[in-house]
């Protein structure tokens, strides 16, 4: 990490992860500082790339997205053109919430959020029509036990 993160920075980041809509005054009060130093630190952290885009977390189930599938993909294709097509197919699919390239027997794992199994099948049919894959295994999540976007900042030490 190229930017130095101290205890105050960590406290600010914890507050922003918890609720980025807080006012500077609220954050400053929670971290034991005043508004201007907090603003300067936030600006420094943004400039260093520690703080990325601001967004809102939506309740998927409240919006009707009741099914989460973890999709394990094996491929025998590893050429640059295949990878380009595969990455484009994933980026073009809003159902794909996460995609990771893995070490081991499985090449990729996707987290796919859809309304139901029929919607997953449509996603699957579209994906395999766009790119060739060797094997696809879909695992339906029966229950989400924990999901967070918050990083474990207490694990960081002063740099």
From TrEMBL:
Entries under Pfam families matching the protein: AsnC_trans_reg (PF01037), HTH_AsnC-type (PF13404)
Gene3D superfamilies per record: 3.30.70.920, Winged helix-like DNA-binding domain superfamily/Winged helix DNA-binding domain
GO molecular function, one term: sequence-specific DNA binding
Classification via PROSITE patterns: HTH_ASNC_1 (PS00519), HTH_ASNC_2 (PS50956)
Record keywords, A-Z: DNA-binding, Transcription, Transcription regulation
Domain of life where this protein originates: Bacteria
Annotated SMART domains: HTH_ASNC
Domain named HTH asnC-type: residues: 5-66
GO biological process: regulation of DNA-templated transcription; response to amino acid
Record's keyword annotation contains DNA-binding: yes
GO cellular component: cytosol
PANTHER family the record matches: DNA-BINDING TRANSCRIPTIONAL ACTIVATOR DECR, LEUCINE-RESPONSIVE REGULATORY PROTEIN
Protein's name in the database: ArsR family transcriptional regulator
Source species taxonomy: Bacteria, Pseudomonadati, Pseudomonadota, Alphaproteobacteria, Rhodobacterales
